[in-house]
Specification:
The protein is of the alpha/beta class. It folds into 2 domains: about 140 residues, Rossmann fold; about 60 residues, Arc Repressor Mutant, subunit A (Orthogonal Bundle). It is about 50% helix and about 15% strand. It contains 10 helices and 5 strands. Strands 2-1-3-4-5 form a 5-stranded parallel sheet, sandwiched between helices. β3, α3 and β4 form a beta-alpha-beta unit. α7 packs across α9 and α7 packs across α10. The longest helix has 15 residues. The radius of gyration is 17 Å and the shape is globular. The N and C termini lie far apart (about 40 Å).
């Protein structure tokens, strides 16, 4: 039996994933977490064959949780599930130790196939993500690679017209901290305003409109 732990802050998403996996006789969701703290508490209590991890959770993000998880459980395969396309986070997720990256809008059979792939010790990489990986190792990459994962996350949220207050609430950080990240992002990318930042994100396909 393939034992799966799902970490997603939306109960309705977890329930949907459980229903998909319930159709598979050799798969079972045996743990659910709504945030990173709950995830690590569950990891201490049992042994899983795979973790399905949402990239956008309150407090510690999925990418941050992934890095911590791989330090403690380096052999545990993790499938990152995200509302964002591969262009936004796919390469970063794989670099952080993910075994695969899948959009939440993907078909159920692709979700099942991704889990079967990673529990075999292989990487699940879509054609789009493979292309982005190739682009990432060639000269001339855009400057967003200079950003930390948290800076990158906030850049995408600003570009999607989220208010400072909403970003602070999403990430469980203060408004002042959001402004500090924003200033660092603008400095690293040599930009001056949120408008320029949004234009940059669109031009570099960091967000999907």
């Amino acid at each position: 039996m393939i034992k799966i732990l799902i970490a997603d802050d939306h109960a309705i998403v977890r329930e949907g994933l459980k229903q998909i996996l319930a159709e598979e006789p050799d798969m079972k969701v045996t743990g659910e977490a709504g945030n990173a703290d709950e995830l690590f508490e569950l990891l201490k209590k049992d042994i899983w064959n795979a973790v399905v991890l949402d990239i956008n959770m309150p407090g510690k993000s999925g990418l941050e949780a992934l890095k911590d998880l791989k330090k403690i459980y380096p052999d545990l395969p993790v499938l990152i599930l995200s509302m964002y396309g591969e262009e936004q986070y796919g390469v970063r997720a794989l670099k952080a130790g993910a075994s695969g990256y899948l959009k939440k809008a993907s078909a159920p059979n692709e979700f099942v196939s991704a889990i079967r792939t990673i529990v075999k010790g292989k990487k699940y990489i879509s054609p789009t993500l493979a292309e982005n990986l190739a682009d990432n190792i060639t000269p001339g990459n855009h400057h967003s690679n200079k950003l930390s994962d948290r800076e990158y996350e906030i850049l995408c949220k600003i570009a999607l017209s989220k208010s400072t207050e909403d970003i602070a609430n999403d990430l469980c950080i203060s408004v002042h901290t959001v402004y500090s990240y924003r200033n660092r992002i603008l400095e690293k990318l040599n930009l001056k305003t949120n408008v320029e930042l949004t234009q940059y994100a669109i031009q570099n396909k960091l967000i999907e409109l």
